[in-house]
Amino acid sequence: MSNQPPDPLAAVEALLAAVDDGHVLPPPAERVRLREAAGLTQAAVAQALGVRLPSIQAWEDGRAEPKPERLQAYRRLLDGLAQRYPVPSASPATPPPSASTQRSAAAPPVGPSRSAHTDSTSRRATAPRRPGAPTAAAAGPAPQGADRRFANGPLLVIDADDDRRTTGYGVGGLIMEVPAKSIAALVEWALREAHLGAARLHGSGKDADPLLVLTPAACERYGLPVALSESERLASRLPEGHKVLEQLDRADWQLTKRGFGPWARIYRPAEGRQRQCVQLCIPSWNALDTRTWGHSAELGPAELARVLGVYASRVMTPRGSTAVTGLELMTALNPPTRASEADTEGKRHKEHRPGSLGEQPMDCAPCEAPDGHPLLAGLPRFHQRGPAEMLFEEAYDWARELTDAECMQRHLVGLDVNLAFGAAANGALVGLATPPVHVTDPDFDQALPGAWLVDLSHVDLSRVRVGKQWRRLQGALLPSPFTPTGERPAGPAWYATPTVAYAVELGYDVAPLEAWVREESGRFLDGWYKRLRDAYIDTMADLGVGEKQSPPEFLKSMVDYKGNDPHTAIVLDAIKSTVKGGIGKLRERARGGGWRPGQAWPALARPTWRPDIRAVVISRARINMHRKMLNLAAATGRYPVAVLSDCAVYAADGPSPLDVLPYDADGKTVPGSFRLGVSPGMVKHEGTQTTLWAEDVREKHGQVLNLARYIKTGEVTATDDTE
Description:
By secondary structure, this protein is of the alpha+beta class. The chain has 21 helices and 22 strands.
């Protein structure tokens, strides 16, 4: 035994290590404070630690702790930040945060909670507030991002009580007293004092403007109608001369050309690089369409703030409908310009940013133009363009009669592709900021996005190449991959590049007659897809559906998954609508009275009015669907009986997707075909009906009825006219 005296320093270190074993990390609120004090984003921390952004959000929210392999690195980061940014002394105006009440808004809970009105009443009684300040319980670190300019998050839901007192409900449980007495003052306050907004999603982009959501009570408080009159609803705006418009005009505030409607944008010209713009959302004017936002307009202000806050953190601050937001997200993630290198005087200038669509609108090719476009003004008034004149890339709407063998099977099972248009956007090669070039008698090049006039009627689905082998199939039981109706083309027609490339993949030669191609190309939508993909996956995880579940586990978790948290389900539906609506907006048609065919409409002035990009995405979605059906048919002899967009229906002996898809004991199925799972491009169970049901509804409504349209509930709400 050694007679050497113990080393006091080593003993102290051992003692500290023993104590630290139980308290390895500071409280969640302190983790947020340290990161924000250093000006670090959650994304930067996630990248440094080699984890996904939702992990950082969960650690800062207190919902999870780092796993051992990340614990030491995360603790080292926090310890280093704590030395550089010690806890500041608390002041009466800004109480220190409470770990039990302050949490990150990156993923705030959106489920049912105690009444916000009850909570705010008790806070008013026990913690009087200065005007415009958050409650003591909600004060502290910024609930979103690292930018202190936006310390109170991206949005507030503004409500008023019977005594005309106005309160703002924000993300993370934030409650603020709103001192503004008019709409003009409210906008001024939101920009000058409320610390609202969100940091840009790209270094060359723009910060998100504050969003103010007005409840019916707030509308009354600020002199706005709770609901629009019939004429106002049709015009989608307040009429000229309304007192609120005059009030804004006197205060030198301006409105966009859309006027003061459900999604009013109020602004003053920017001062230098400082934007002065506030977005309003008025749910009682149908700003939150029930088709995309469900019953969110009926939620209380605190619950609505949580729903919109989760959407804002995972997608972006809403800028209008989900379709509008989907389009705005493309530009936010891939801005058209950037700052140049400094010139000889040290000044930077705005310049085109490579990989973007640029700032100027782009003319489409004549074959890409929808009916009524100015490019078609010379056509006879009632001329109907055919496939050889017009690019017609649309989603499937196809059905056929059941075979005798299929009628003997008891069930029809629907398989629905998750986020089909999002998955199709991933990796899509599209034209960028140069106009299309017309070529005659071209050689087909699948690396050139564009439209090709080519005859694909010779492609015979009864003999195709699947993988690297030629296979014999029952081609009559499959839809054609080249038309949305599934009918075999009869001659030359215009197709987007992915459609023609699929004909080559099936083993057939192609000889285009002419083409409109875009020589500058890139994967413009990749970042857009990845952000929406993560938003979808994270929200599904909140509903109890995970990425690594086995097929039986996945099917079990999907049973009434939206019932696990109806408010989170609203966010999920809004995310899905953002994907589909954003793609649709790329070819927005003329709307409203007064427009005549041949005249331009406002959407044509946008750089993001790009029907060619929409055509590429829809072409890829339809081809992806056909490829899955083809691989399943080649491996199992199963053929679809109906396809509608991203849903395919199969006859089966049992009611489950597992009765259609041949999974083995290791959880593997046919390569390149349908796979059960939550990720975009994988499938879920859409619904099951009996073959007797199919016979009954087709007897009543005709054989052209598309069973995929009604497979979910079995209820046929209207006669299917295939439109």
